[in-house]
Every structure is written in C-alpha cells, then in structure tokens.
Amino acid sequence: xxxxxxxxxxxxxxxxKLVKAHCEADIWPDxxxxxxxxxxxxxxxxxxxxxxITERIDVEVLDAAGPQLKVISQMAVGVDNIDxxxxxxxxxxxxxxxxxxxxxxADLAFALLLAAARRIVEAADYVRRGQWRTWGATILLGAxxxxxxxxxxGLGRIGKAVARRAAGFDLRILAHDPGCTPxxxxxxxARLVSLEDLLRESDFVTLHTPLTERTRGLINxxxxxxxxxxxxxxxxxxxxIVDQAALVEALTTGIIGAAALDVTDxxxxxxxxxxxSLPNALIVPHIGSASVWTRDQMALxxxxxxxxxxxxxxxxxxxxxxxx
Length: 324
Ligand code: DGY
Known about the structure:
Blueprint: E1 4-7, H1 13-22, E2 24-27, H2 36-42, E3 48-51, H3 59-65, E4 71-74, H4 84-89, E5 94-95, H5 102-117, H6 120-128, E6 149-153, H7 157-168, E7 172-176, H8 182-186, E8 190-192, H9 195-201, E9 204-207, H10 221-224, E10 232-235, H11 244-253, E11 258-261, E12 281-283, H12 292-310
Parallel strand pairs: 1-2, 1-3, 3-4, 4-5, 6-7, 6-9, 7-8, 9-10, 10-11, 11-12
This protein binds (2R)-2,3-dihydroxypropanoic acid.
C-alpha cells in the first residue's frame, strides 16, 4: 500500500507526478489554501504533509495528523510558518528547497531596486493616464545606481547573489550579517559593517535574512530614522522583518524615499492598506521565486523530501532542526 500524503495545493506537474507515483495523494484542489478546519481535517492519519508558506504548521496540526506522521515537506526555503521545535520534539524531519530559488529571488530584488530607483511603475502609469505631453527636463527623475551604496542585510545565498548583480551596476556594497566572515563578504565585493552604519550610509537597503525572533521588526521606527531621506528599502525576504506601520509613516513623512516590497505583513496585503495608495511604495505579490524553472525545481525537491520521509529515508534537503 502506498503511503498517504496531503498536499496543500496543486504544485507544478514535475513534482506532482513524482508524488502521485509514490504516494496516495490527497491534493487540495482550490487556488486558495485550505482554511484551518479543512487543514486539520485533511491531515488526519497521513504519513506525509507537503505544504506551502501559507499554512501554519504547529502543534495543533501535528496533533490532528497523529503519531504516524513521518515528514513535513515545505515547497519553499523559508520555514518560519512551521513550528520546528514541535516537529523536532516528535522526531519529524522537515524538508525545504534551498539553493534553487537563489537566482530568481536575487533577480526580483534587483528588478524592484531598479524599478523603485527609476520610478518605472509610476512612469508607466503616467503614460497610461495620458499625462505624457512632452519630454521634460525635470519629469519623473529617479536615482542613479552607479556610484551609489547598496546595503545588504543578510549575506547568505540570496544576499550574495544580489551582491554579484550589484557589482555589474558599479554599486559600492555594504553588508550586515553576524554569521558572515569578512572574507566571505569580500568574495562578493561587500564590506561587513554594523547595522547602524549600513542604514546610515546606504542609498538602497535590501533585506535577505530569514524571519526569526531576532529579525522580526528589525526595520522599525528607530532604524528607519537612521536611513537617508532619499533611501530606498527593498524587501524580498519576509514581511514581518519590517514594521509596516512605521514604514507607512516613514514613506509619508519623508524619513525615507521609497520602498519596494515583494512581501508584506500580512499576506495578502488588504486592498485598502495605506501602503497601496502611496506613489513611493511599490508592492508585488510575493513572486521572488516565481519563474517557471525555479518553481519546477522547488516542486521536485519538495516531492523528493516528501517521498524520502514517508519511506523512512533521510531527507535529501533537510532543514537543520533545533535540539529536541
Ligand atoms: C521561500 O521559498 O521561502 C519564498 O518566500 C517562496 O518561494
């Protein structure tokens, strides 16, 4: 008999095919994630769970699933929606999809940086609204990249990939990452500095840290005030790293120049949120890893983790677990 698994959404076919070949799979059919009661119901008795960042996987879910649950496989690199401590306490391994989304996410961070610096969305709207009447010497002026300073908070895989792109645009690169050595930073032409120095000196600040208790609210009323009034904040990491109310205040009062966000708190951002009415805020719907190749690889890795877990083998792409 094949092991039973619950897959919380249709994932790209490459991964789904693999899951179906090895498991008896219950696949949530809707575009929206299962509501909490449905999630608790559908995990009952499964051997494996393949989930997305939209599901909160906590003690309640693990209890609802039951003691036979052998693996949690998330189709994402970030796992802040999963209670790792609770999973570790039950000896349940958690899998994720590191590496394959590095370049796509760095591309998006850079696309947002360029779009905000050169006011691309504002400019496109200006044309669409029929406001383009002439070439004007002072119309829609933006910021130069060449010679400016980019501050990268979190110099892991994605932060380094952003730094490699930045070198091609002649940006000076500062980085803040307590876990990174000066040599590793130098390998991507970045210089490690304190968070305060990075915020004070950077023209662009881009976030690439995981969401942890240490990074939650890292960009807040106080830290925003350290930034230049012309600075642009880019977030492709996790919404709660930024205190969003403080960001609205900073963008409306000229404490910083602009923000470009792929992630918000909450997600999706409510359509009437004040950020959406600000011309200096650019928001896209968490699409950092949304390229065809990347999502195929993520689906494959998630399927591989799921299958290894239900078969009792070590996961090929495990999340480092906290001590239980
Ligand atoms: C991740 O993988 O953590 C992204 O946020 C979604 O691709």
